[in-house]
Specification:
This protein is mainly β. Helices cover 8% and strands 40% of the residues. The chain has a single domain, classed as Beta Barrel (OB fold (Dihydrolipoamide Acetyltransferase, E2P)), CATH 2.40.50.
Length: 111
Amino acid sequence: MEYTDFETFMKLDIRVGEIIEAEIYKEARKPAYLLQVDFGKEIGIRKCSAQITEQYRVEELVGKQVMGVVNFPPKQIGKIRSEALVLGVYNKEGVILISPDKKAEKGDRLG
């Protein structure tokens, strides 16, 4: 394990977002969804790709709150430009999204 310091961690801008649109990313090499996530007025709506197909169906994602990193530079992933990274944990059944355990405001910052 490599250690880091608190100042480095605080450079990450991790916000609460709400998935407002989800669809199957047909062109992806590995099964994935295309998500549009609303991170509130300050950040806005960001697109991203997420390999979460083992644990989630498209229809259950819309309206779900998630945590996401919003200050990584955009990255081209196949035909889409990913503008955020939704956070999750890996387990033997696939990725489980990280979300607040109570309703939070879109754009609320981890801190």
